[in-house]
Amino acid sequence: MPNPRTIFEKIWDAHEILKRDDGQSLLYIDRHIIHDGGFHAFGMLREVGRKVRQAKQTFGTPDHYASTTIRKIEDMDDPEAKEKVQGLAVSAREFGIYHFGLDDVRMGISHVIGPELGITQPGILLCCGDSHTSTHGAMGCISFGIGASEATHVLATQTIWQQKPKLMRVTVTGKLGFSVTGKDVALALIAQETAACGTGHAIEYAGPCVSQLDIEGRLTLSNMTIEAGSRTGLIAPDDKTLSFIDGTEFAPRGKKWDRAVKYWQTLPTDDDAKFDAEVTLDGSAIAPMVTWGTSPQHAISITEAVPDPEKEPDTEKRAAMKRALDYTGLKPGQKMTDIPVDRVFIGSCTNSRMQDLRNAAEVVKGKKVKCWSMISPGSEQVRKQAIAEGIDKIFIDAGFEWRHSGCSMCVGLNGDLLNSGERSASTSNRNFEGRQGPETRTHLVSPAMAAAAAITGKFTDVRSLMEEK
Ligand code: SF4
Fold it and tell me: Which of 422, 428, 466 minimizes the C-alpha distance to 444?
């Protein structure tokens, strides 16, 4: 009998070409996604006169610098953003890789289009020059972010040197309640275990609540893995995974599909496989979450009040809490539902997929926003589908700005930023100081919670606005 293995070990073993004495393994890369912020890797290839080793396993899309209002490169007015978006387009043409440009309906945020186009599949090894590459693991693969020189190595050789991480399993028990989403699970986990809990580990998410999540929710959970300190998160593929991939542009077809499914069904972790660390989270106890500070671990249920640093026994943590409250301008004991918001952003690789938009639209339908609110769908395909379902109209009628796809206000490299001093309810993944612009305050929430904030002008328990079905 072969040793029982985790899904991570099965995929790692299938991709390990050789192992050095220092513990580093040379791994084969099945898919490489490059965004507009990473096009410089091609410059290094040019310098050494190399080609892309597997051009048809390499995919480029502009996301970090993509304008959410202007969709022709020549019309872009920010010279830096234009250079980046153009640089990727030119390199993609020169090296013959796939490229989904600003005017292509397949364009979108790297971590949204991968799963959506079937580029991301169970059992593969995927990398991208962005730390939220952990997202793709929700489809049952190993995925991680890489740096510029690693990207050049992958372009030239289709391989990468990596140290095998330790393995952690996060089991989410129970049943998720009404309006509780993958985002709430991720924030609850990080609040319980800290933003460093996964350091040095690859995290496998398991348990009934993970099975209960739709694929969009799983992608959100895996996306936030890096906020828990780990580069890789993954979820065993099941029927939901297969139906999400089936029929997508890069999915196998016919006999190849049957063969692939047969292999994918062997991937889930064996019963007696061992993990280096085990964490349990009670999914039934999770409520819609909101952050109050400057780290994703500064998260509480919307029903709670801002915590009091004086009650924190650990000196270092107490000081960090005080600093965070000073920055966010909140007071201990203040109810989260009493805090007004200036802007609402629904977008980013964390929460901008079709189901995210549907969840938000359900809250917004027939109501008007009380503060400036915008939506940037995660991809142009999501945007197109939302228009087909009439969801765009719900948002526009409510007073939302309905934009095109890109990273947008998650990081603001395209100019979509908050004004200094403003407070946002944001569906993105990072709330550290200045993330959405200098002196801005970011509070992380799910799309439904962001929609609730938009129509009430303050943080609101979305459950109080909705009827449980
Ligand atoms: S949406 Fe934000 S976190 Fe995601 S890839 Fe873009 S900048 Fe990075």
Answer: 428
